[in-house]
Structures are given as structure tokens and as C-alpha cells.
Design brief:
Blueprint (H helix, E strand, L loop, with lengths): L2 H4 L12 H18 L5 E5 L5 H6 L5 E6 L2 H11 L5 E4 L11 E7 L8 H8 L3 E12 L4 H8 L11 H6 L7 H10 L2 E9 L6 H7 L3 H11 L8 E8 L1
């Protein structure tokens, strides 16, 4: 079950080409979620990934459960973060089932990986409490840096998977329009949409410029209001 997932584990390390993007975005979006769900008691998270969100979320909820399909990612998380109190269920998202319902469900950079994102969205609606929220974040193929690359002749097709995408196991990318259509077809309405990291140039160019932490933080702050141009998209969904 896990061998297919375990082969992508190296892309979740610090030497990955886009480790800077990952570090910025995945430390940022959990705080955005937490700001919107104050007072909620239970959270179900799909995927451990880099573990940044998991470490943050486990400190804020009375009931917190994570589903992860890769044994290697779970092992790396335990080795790096400890957090033995975090309840991680080893399961494919498609196979997971519970009678429990949660105030919040988080799918942080999950829908680009799975075989059938609409199936996942519809399935997990049954685990959501009335008036609960699902948060989804995905990579955006219409990001400003990619658009500039396209018009500069560096990128031929915005929707095509890059080598970085393939290394992470991505099966698809999204834009605001395509993600909105997907979630609405899956029985949700969009409550909020915001951007995750607005960058005008490539990651390697940013690293060459040795930009300050303040400038990098500003790219995150400014991106909130420009989801169509940001590297990632974050949506809060309500079940209809």
C-alpha cells in the first residue's frame, strides 16, 4: 500500500529544489486556518507531509486526528518532531472511515496528489459537523511567476507538471476557477479564498537575491488578497 507513496519522501526534505516555498507556505497557511476557526474543538487533517501544519494544529484542538498513507513520512515526522501525542492513522484517504464528526477538516496540498479529488471531497463531507469547515489548499498554475515564465518563453504550458511537481507526486495543478468548479460540483460553497505566497520570480532567483525575512514575509502577506496570482490557493468550504 505504501510503496507508491514512499518513493516521494525525498521531496519533503530540506534539499528539495522548492524547499524554500514549502517552508514559507506550509508554516503560513496553518496560522491562516487557525485564525478562522477559533473556538473549534476538533480537527481532522489529511496528510502529514512536511509536518509543519501537524505540529501547529496538535497544540490547538482537544481532538486532533491525522490520516497518512506513507509509513516513511510518518517515520520521518516522528524522528524530526517527536510529537508522540499526535494520533496518526496509517491509511489511504480513500479507505479511511469513522463514525466521528469534526468541526474542521484540513486538506493541505492533498487534492493535487489523489486519483479522484471529487471522490475525496464528497467522502469527507460525511465526517464534518453541521456548520463545520473544510479547508483545501492547492498549487496554482496561474501564479504570477509562472505567468511571467510563460510569456518569457520559458514555460510552454502553464498546466503541465514541472519536474518539481512530479518529484512531489502531483497528478494535476489548479487555478481559482478550476478549484471552485471542483468544490461546487462536490457539494460545497466557497466561503473564503485567499492566496499563499505571491512571488514574481523563480525560487532560485529569490535565493540568489538573498532577500530578507521581512521581504519574504511581505510576499505571504500581499498574496492573501491575490489568490489568482499566488503560488498556492487556500479555500474555506461549507457543505451545502
Amino acid at each position: 500500500m505504501t510503496s507508491q507513496l514512499d518513493k516521494y519522501v525525498d521531496a519533503y526534505g530540506d534539499t528539495f529544489l522548492y524547499a524554500l516555498d514549502n517552508d514559507l507556505i506550509i508554516n503560513w497557511y496553518p496560522d491562516r486556518v487557525l485564525n478562522l476557526v477559533k473556538g473549534k474543538n476538533s480537527l481532522l487533517e489529511l496528510g502529514v507531509g512536511h509536518g509543519y501544519a501537524t505540529v501547529k494544529f496538535c497544540e490547538h484542538f482537544d481532538r486532533y486526528l491525522v490520516i497518512e498513507g506513507s509509513t516513511e513520512i510518518i517515520k520521518n515526522f516522528r524522528k524530526k518532531h517527536g510529537a508522540e501525542n499526535v494520533n496518526i492513522i496509517h491509511s489511504y484517504f480513500e479507505d479511511f472511515h469513522t463514525e466521528e464528526k469534526f468541526d474542521v477538516i484540513v486538506m493541505g496540498f492533498i487534492l493535487e496528489h489523489v486519483d479522484d479529488p471529487e471522490l475525496i471531497l464528497k467522502k469527507y463531507k460525511q465526517f464534518l459537523k453541521p456548520n463545520g469547515s473544510i479547508f483545501v489548499s492547492v498549487p496554482n498554475y496561474e501564479a504570477l511567476n509562472k505567468r511571467i515564465g510563460y510569456f518569457a518563453g520559458i514555460i510552454n504550458d502553464l498546466t503541465a507538471l514541472s519536474e518539481g511537481d512530479k518529484a512531489l507526486g502531483h497528478q494535476r495543478l489548479f487555478c481559482v476557477k478550476s478549484l471552485t468548479e471542483l468544490v461546487e460540483n462536490s457539494g460545497y460553497k466557497v466561503k473564503t479564498t485567499e492566496g499563499l505566497l505571491l512571488k514574481p520570480i523563480t525560487t532560485s532567483q529569490i535565493q540568489q537575491l538573498n532577500l530578507s525575512k521581512e521581504v519574504l514575509q511581505a510576499m505571504l502577506e500581499v498574496g492573501v488578497d491575490y489568490p489568482e496570482l499566488s503560488v498556492g490557493i487556500l479555500m474555506e468550504l461549507k457543505a451545502e
